[in-house]
């Protein structure tokens, strides 16, 4: 199974659409199901118009996922990540039991972390995981990931699962076997492979064939949902152009 996994935290841009197309082409080429998985854990940035935008962009691309929500109402009712919260909570408990040496509690603020890095006490301080207001992190010091994604978060200070945790659990839950994602997510793939191992899942890179594609640039700058794009009609590109880019991504070795 292949997935399209947008986050409804802004209007999608042409780069997101090209990623959708790449996954749709991948599913078609390999005869796999295509799952629409909308990652809505970040409810603070969620807006109904962003959710609707996902369906509008898919319709414009003429992509029809074979599994997943049919519309926003179906999504909220049956497919929201909130519905899978018990799976994430169970995975966090499993990590804490299976990997007590790697999971640690960290009360540090963003400012503190930026100032001092994380070379100080938290990973070794063994602060109780049940203390109020601590994030749960993975000690990455013995991994190659440490340079790029040091001690990434698996449970936020508000007790909710992080993106890395939820994505790892969801990919396993839905049986994802191939995935095209932006090369900016290479470190995420490494973090998720580590979590997958710690959770005792079969090795991530043996289960899922990842294809990291370049990011679409706008005059040399990375596209972002915050750059004021207000929906598919203002991108100034055609559906055919989007698919041409996506086709190139999935055929370039
Ligand atoms: Zn800390």
TrEMBL record:
Transmembrane segments: none annotated. Keywords: Aminoacyl-tRNA synthetase, ATP-binding, Ligase, Metal-binding, Nucleotide-binding, Protein biosynthesis, Zinc. GO terms for biological process: glutamyl-tRNA aminoacylation. Residues 2-115, 132-244 form the Glutamyl/glutaminyl-tRNA synthetase class Ib catalytic domain. One of its GO terms (cellular component) is cytosol. InterPro entries: Glu/Gln-tRNA-synth, Glu/Gln-tRNA-synth_Ib_cat-dom, GluQ/Sye, Rossmann-like_a/b/a_fold. Coiled coil: none annotated. One of its GO terms (molecular function) is glutamate-tRNA ligase activity. The keyword S-adenosyl-L-methionine does not apply. The keyword Aminoacyl-tRNA synthetase applies. It comes from the Bacteria. Belongs to the class-I aminoacyl-tRNA synthetase family. This is Glutamyl/glutaminyl-tRNA synthetase.
């Amino acid at each position: 199974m292949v997935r399209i996994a947008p986050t409804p935290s802004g209007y999608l841009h042409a780069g997101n659409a090209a990623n959708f197309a790449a996954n749709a082409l991948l599913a078609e080429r390999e005869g796999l199901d295509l799952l629409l998985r909308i990652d809505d854990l970040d409810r603070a940035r969620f807006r109904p118009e962003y959710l609707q935008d996902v369906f509008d962009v898919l319709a414009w691309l003429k992509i029809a996922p074979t599994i997943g929500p049919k519309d926003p109402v179906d999504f909220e009712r049956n497919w929201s990540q909130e519905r899978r919260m018990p799976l994430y909570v169970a995975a966090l408990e499993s990590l804490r039991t299976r990997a007590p040496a790697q999971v640690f509690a960290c009360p540090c603020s963003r400012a503190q972390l930026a100032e001092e890095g994380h070379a100080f006490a938290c990973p070794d301080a063994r602060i109780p995981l049940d203390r109020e207001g601590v994030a749960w992190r993975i000690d990455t010091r013995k991994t190659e990931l440490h340079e790029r994604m040091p001690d990434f978060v698996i449970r936020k200070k508000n007790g909710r699962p992080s993106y890395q945790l939820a994505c790892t659990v969801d990919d396993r839950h839905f049986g994802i076997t191939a995935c095209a994602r932006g090369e900016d997510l290479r470190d995420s793939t490494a973090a998720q492979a580590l979590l997958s191992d710690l959770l005792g899942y079969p090795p991530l890179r043996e289960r899922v064939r990842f294809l990291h594609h370049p990011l679409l640039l706008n005059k040399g700058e990375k596209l972002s949902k915050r750059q004021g794009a207000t929906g598919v009609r203002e991108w100034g590109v055609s559906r055919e152009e989007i698919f041409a880019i996506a086709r190139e991504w999935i055929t370039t070795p």
